[in-house]
Amino acid sequence: MRKYVWIVVFIVLGIYFLTGVYQVGPSEVALLKTFGRFTSVVPSGIHYHLPYPIQSHVTVDVTTVRKIEIGFRSIQRGERISYQSVPQEAIMITGDNNLVSVEAVVQYRVKDPVAYAFNITEADSIVRFTTESVLREKVAMRSIDDVLTSGRDEIGFKTAQMLQEILDSYNCGIKVENVYLQEVVPPDPVVDAFDDVNNARQDKERLINEARKYANDVVPKAQGQAQEILRQAEAYAQEVYLKALGEAKRFEEVLEEYSKAPDITRKRMLLDALQSLLEKSENKVFFVGNGDSLNILNISDLLKGMGK
């Protein structure tokens, strides 16, 4: 009887010691504890430690990227995945006091398995609440136009930076891989009003662009016409200037001749003036006087009579 008792004891002890055999997956590490205190990190593979309560282990996945959803939840029904909005997380206030619905996704992994396993509990909740707080702060610093358009990527980037700083201060062993805004839209109750404002803004931009296009077409033409008028004025001024120089030169030459022979020069100038006047007149009449009588001579008639 005693023999069977010892056999049972050995079997129980064997089973007890075999409970120390454990396997660590390819993406995991094991944290070995002795009497409840952490002693070492064990890599992937099959390992053995003394049975509980002498030794125990905790496995931590250090390569899988975890995902946290802010403002919505993914619901899988069979092979289909649907999305359910969470307004209490999604609705945020922008810097210009507008409401906006923000849905974001946070991706993170474990960078320090010891801190992750022993310093925090419910890591997903910590990441979710911290991300939501940081995201609200970043959205509150931007206008609604910025949040809806060009500022989305920058908001996600700065949220990830600040989130990492806060998590590091918690010493929770988490590495933030990415924060991106999946959907940013006005809340359903104000969508129509927002669309009206957006359409009005687009009309304004269209009118401004049309005005600029018209200005770009008219202004160069006006500038070209102004340049043409300016060139014509400069050419006319140059012509008048040169003509004045010529007249002055001619006057100087006449003055020089006049100073040499005043009577001859005076008669010559008189004859030149008469010739110029006669060339411009079709009918030429002279008044010739000799004392008390005055005779009128029509040169045109005389020329006709002479056959000219």
Automatic annotation (TrEMBL):
<dbReference type="InterPro" id="IPR036013">
    <property type="entry name" value="Band_7/SPFH_dom_sf"/>
</dbReference>
<keyword id="KW-0175">Coiled coil</keyword>
<comment type="similarity">
    <text>Belongs to the band 7/mec-2 family. HflK subfamily.</text>
</comment>
<feature type="coiled-coil region">
    <location>
        <begin position="190"/>
        <end position="217"/>
    </location>
</feature>
<keyword id="KW-0645">Protease</keyword>
<dbReference type="InterPro" id="IPR001107">
    <property type="entry name" value="Band_7"/>
</dbReference>
<keyword id="KW-0472">Membrane</keyword>
<dbReference type="InterPro" id="IPR010201">
    <property type="entry name" value="HflK"/>
</dbReference>
<dbReference type="Pfam" id="PF01145">
    <property type="entry name" value="Band_7"/>
</dbReference>
<keyword id="KW-0812">Transmembrane</keyword>
<dbReference type="GO" id="GO:0008233">
    <property type="term" value="F:peptidase activity"/>
</dbReference>
<feature type="domain" description="Band 7">
    <location>
        <begin position="19"/>
        <end position="198"/>
    </location>
</feature>
<protein>
    <recommendedName>
        <fullName>Protein HflK</fullName>
    </recommendedName>
</protein>
<keyword id="KW-1133">Transmembrane helix</keyword>
<dbReference type="InterPro" id="IPR050710">
    <property type="entry name" value="Band7/mec-2_domain"/>
</dbReference>
<keyword id="KW-0378">Hydrolase</keyword>
<dbReference type="InterPro" id="IPR001972">
    <property type="entry name" value="Stomatin_HflK_fam"/>
</dbReference>
<dbReference type="GO" id="GO:0006508">
    <property type="term" value="P:proteolysis"/>
</dbReference>
<dbReference type="GO" id="GO:0016020">
    <property type="term" value="C:membrane"/>
</dbReference>
<comment type="subunit">
    <text>HflC and HflK may interact to form a multimeric complex.</text>
</comment>
<comment type="function">
    <text>HflC and HflK could encode or regulate a protease.</text>
</comment>
